[in-house]
Amino acid sequence: MSMVMMQNSNKLMSLAMLKKLELIEKFGEEKKQIKIVGRSLFLFSKDNYLRQVCAKVVKHNYYDTGVLILITISTILLTLDSPNMDSKGKFAEVLGYLDYVLTMLFSLESLLNIILFGLLCNGRNSYARDPWNVMDLLIVFFSIFNIVLDLQGDSTDLSILKIFRMLRVLRPLRFLKRNLGLKIQVISLMNAIPGIANLLLISLLLLMIFGIQAVGFLKGTFYYCDTNGMPEYVIEQIQTQWDCLDYGGAWVNHVGNFDNVVNAMVTMFGMMSTEGWLDVMWRAVDSTAIHQVPRRNNKQAFIVFFTVFIIIASLFLLNLFVGVVINTFNIEKEKLSRNNLMTDL
After folding, report:
1. Cβ count near 66 (within 10 Å)
2. Which one of 172, 209, 279, 307 is most buried, counting C-beta atoms within 10 A?
3. Which residues fall within 8 angstroms of residue 189, CB to CB, at 6 or more apart?
4. Fold adopted by 34-178
5. DSSP assignment of 2-47, as one string?
6. Class of 193-340 in CATH
7. Does the pTM of the predicted model rise above 0.70?
8. What are 37-52's pLDDT values in tens digits?
9. For the chain, where do the domains classified as CATH 1.20.120.350 start and end?
10. By three-state DSSP, how is residue 167 classified?
11. What confidence tens digit (pLDDT) does each residue in 276-330 have?
């Protein structure tokens, strides 16, 4: 009886839990096992003492945790740095020394991995054959070059120095290499680019269709008379552009207008985000004719036109972009969880 109950409980275990257990087992085992292949940098053999020491350090349980702590400290220091800070002050000096120490530690971390796995010529496990490791190397290079420029002092071109200091913002990207969840998300975004590109073409087509229609109805009708400082009885007499200019007003066009297809597409693209779309719609409702001042609620049919556009462009189309990314993310997660190994369950 107890055996039957155990079998039933095993069957009731969720697929999600099985995936989670499999991920922990698979990635945990792979992380502890490091294959030392060939001669690293054409100098260090498999049995080389230095290479064995590097393997012990990288395999250590606290190695990744230590690197993540260093990345966190580096990110915090970046937030503390400010262009308005006195470059010769005590705080700036402390930040500079900490930057030197962190750069040295990150350089040492890259060197350990290069000695252990080789740079390029040690097969598929070579350090520089992994794009994430290449990103790490570039960040270390930029950091070292920034320190060299700092040490040169006044002889350095300030524009070059600012560029390399700006590249320090890449340091938090190291988290991606060591966080499985972030890695999946970045890979999903990259793999979603073809689907997003197709949706962009559909979006451009939709904007062009609605933009052409809007230009046909609203071209030149978004102008208005700037009547600041005019008395009320004068404003009531203004009906056309020439009345506006005769009475000392300014004939002004709104930034978002439909005078040509490009302007119409840009205006409607902004409306897709639902930011200020009501203002544009009411201007269209108040529009009259070219060289005529707006009149309140003159063309209420445009309420239907712009509402249909918002429903299609904002509610449907923008959500499709989110759907493409989420679908790609789920596909990558399925690949990572090795579903093909669980088909017999």
Report:
1. 13
2. 172
3. 325, 328
4. Four Helix Bundle (Hemerythrin (Met), subunit A) (1.20.120)
5. HHHHHHHHHHHS-HHHHHHHHHHHHHHHHHH-----S-BTTTB-TT
6. mainly alpha
7. no
8. 778 888 888 888 888 8
9. 34-178
10. helix
11. 899 999 999 999 999 899 999 999 999 999 999 999 988 888 888 888 878 877 8
